Amino acid sequence: MSTLRTHLRNNGLSLAFGALFLLSLAGQAWSGLTDVNNQQLAHGTPPVGLLDYLTSSSFAVDVAENWQSEYLQFFLYVFATVWLVQRGSPESKPTHKIGLESDQDQLLGRHARNASPRWAKTGGWRTAVFARSLGLVMATIFLLSWLAQSIAGVSAYNAEQLSDFGDPLTWGEYLLSADFWNRTLQNWQSEFLAIGCMAIFSVYLRQRGSPESKPVGAEHHLTDETG
After folding, report:
1. Quick one: angle between helices 57-83 and 178-204, nearest 10?
2. Vertex 17: Cα angle to 218 and 136 (nearest 5)
3. What are the residues whose beta carbons fall under 8 Å from the beta carbon of 69, sequence distance 6 or more?
4. Cβ(35)–Cβ(5) under 8 Å?
5. What is the pLDDT of residues 69-85, one digit of tens each?
6. How far apart are CA 134 and CA 154, in angstroms?
7. What average pLDDT does the structure give for the chain?
């Protein structure tokens, strides 16, 4: 039992947000199904089942457009903070560390420690890939989610077009359509706003005990310091 408690404690952040993700996804599925069936009944058509809704393009595009914007946020933030700084923010590194930093600072090659990841020690393409692996994975998930959004989106859009006796679009035409970019940009703008707010608010505001905040008594200009 103590081992289980230790595991839960040591992984509490990922487990808690994993559970919140599943609960919110289930809530989205249920509320989305209810909304769709309300529209079906209003148009005099039979309601759809949960499985039919979960495999529909309507549900897929709603999920994918949120995922792609979130992973775009992570991807851009991971790469932007290599070269861009915000003086006084714990989300930023100090100005003298702008850039990729030295092998010694990054514990690469001969500067690696005994417990360092193996690919941090080997050099060559393995170290080069591992040194950028976080951003590459975030970028890959973003692109795949955006692709999924476009595929599910054109299917959902064409279903609406056909029900309204409109002309369907090809995938290429949909990528240039107002519907695709409206879905995309309404998520992007909120992500960019949130990132900017977090960077600047954390200069002047505090949250005691959080690593996303500086110590409560730290000076406003102190950068790359967490509490």
Report:
1. 40
2. 80
3. 184, 187, 188, 190, 191
4. no
5. 999 999 999 999 999 99
6. 30
7. 92
